[in-house]
């Protein structure tokens, strides 16, 4: 399976050694994340450190471990779909437009997100964590 993960999924995998982290690391699936959205991960680093109880060094190790299983997608790889994704989702949640644009650029991909706004579009199937867990089991 091919998934575009949103920032909350990646942050969740950083905070806890959870099923989310296990799926990203242990599944044979392919995961993508827009490089341009990586500022979100940096923005919430302090919160992740507080919630997880990790030291900065451990945080860096966990992040690198996750990124071994996630392909960062450059904006040029999905920019041709930004306008269409914005027309579909821009008025609902502008922050999710890039995730939809990436998914529209990848054949047979799905979006892994717990954001209900992504379910308000029908261009790309969006799955919540509970749905992804069921597929993993």
Describe the structure.
This protein is α/β, with parallel strands linked by helices. The protein has one domain: Rossmann fold (3-Layer(aba) Sandwich). It has nine helices and five strands; from the N terminus they run βααβαααβαααββα. The chain has helices at residues 7-15, 19-26, 38-43, 45-52, 56-67, 75-78, 82-89, 97-105, 129-136; strands at 2-5, 30-34, 70-73, 109-112, 126-127. A five-stranded parallel sheet has the order 3-2-1-4-5. Helix 7 (82-89) crosses helix 8 (97-105).
Features:
5 strands, 9 helices, 5-stranded parallel beta sheet, alpha/beta, single chain, Rossmann fold, globular, 137 residues
CATH topology descriptor: Rossmann fold
Give the overall shape, derived from the CA principal axes: globular
CATH architecture: 3-Layer(aba) Sandwich
What's the helix count? 9
Taking pLDDT < 50 over at least 5 consecutive residues as the criterion, the unreliable ranges are none
The arrangement of helices and strands along the chain is EHHEHHHEHHHEEH
Helix content: 40-55%
Question: Total number of β-strand segments?
Answer: 5
Distance between the termini: 14 Å
Sheet having the most strands: 5 strands, parallel
- What share of residues are in beta strands? 5-15%
């Amino acid at each position: 399976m091919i998934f575009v993960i949103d920032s909350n999924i990646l942050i969740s995998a950083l905070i806890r050694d959870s099923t989310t982290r296990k799926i990203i690391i242990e599944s044979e699936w392919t995961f993508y994340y827009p490089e341009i959205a990586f500022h979100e991960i940096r923005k919430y680093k302090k919160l992740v450190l507080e919630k997880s109880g990790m030291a900065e060094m451990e945080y860096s190790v966990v992040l690198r471990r996750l990124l071994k299983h996630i392909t960062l997608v450059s904006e040029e790889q999905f920019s041709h779909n930004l306008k269409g994704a914005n027309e579909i989702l821009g008025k609902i949640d502008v922050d999710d437009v890039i995730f939809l644009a990436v998914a529209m650029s990848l054949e047979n991909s799905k979006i892994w997100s717990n954001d209900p706004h992504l379910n308000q579009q029908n261009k790309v199937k969006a799955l919540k964590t509970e749905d992804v867990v069921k597929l993993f089991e």
